[in-house]
User: What shape does this take?
Amino acid sequence: MNKSSSRSSLLGRPLALVLAAYALAAGAPPALAGAAGMPGKRMTAVDHQRHMAPVLPAQARPFGYSLDEMARLVAPFNMGDRSGPPPNTPFQILYENTVTGATSFEVPRGTFLYVPLLYNDNSEPVIGHFPAHAQHRQQALRYWYSQSEFGVVTMQIVVDGKVVPLGAGHVSGLSFNPPLPDGATQYLTAGAFIAPLARGAHTVEVCFKATGDALREPPIDQYFPDGLWEFSITYSVTVR
Assistant: This one.
């Protein structure tokens, strides 16, 4: 897979629409791509309504899946052109098909969504001092948020105009052995679950911004002349 294409399309187009989701286009650096629940219990639409928000809390486990488990299943798919079928899960995964540019989905009523924002890993060229062990929570979050490293300042999902900021709980750090298709063994991503939406047409926008010092260091700086990585991508979701 073309790493710059895949990483940017997940999150949109890094610099153009600029990653995520599954997102994770042109202009994105090769080393980058683009959420209190009831553990072990299937979350229903009624449960979701109690939270009064379209995006589920980071600890939610709809159908028994955690964000970390979904991130692991989706990682290899992110690294392709996403023109084929996504991993077989109970969710509709939102992503950009980098061959056709398609970002529209039609789902039956009652469908939960999984939305990846972006990913970053330790394949070359590495951005900053990528954590040696992405599953080490303190290391992963320090790298993700520190302005001396990746420096994430904005992660949010906008569902039908409602802005939902995503916090550290939506960040997943994973190790892979054997390595992922791009050779990475350490992987960081952010994503969220969205409860079933009402019948009709909806928009789901992912927004991301990082301003860390690592984006200004060679050879990564050539991809970010302004020293920041900012993008958004909007998906159309029609519920039958």
Remarks:
- Strands lie at 92-93, 104-107, 113-121, 152-159, 162-165, 171-175, 186-194, 200-210, 229-239.
- Residues 67-78 form the longest helix (12 residues).
- The CA atoms of residues 4 and 30 lie 4 Å apart.
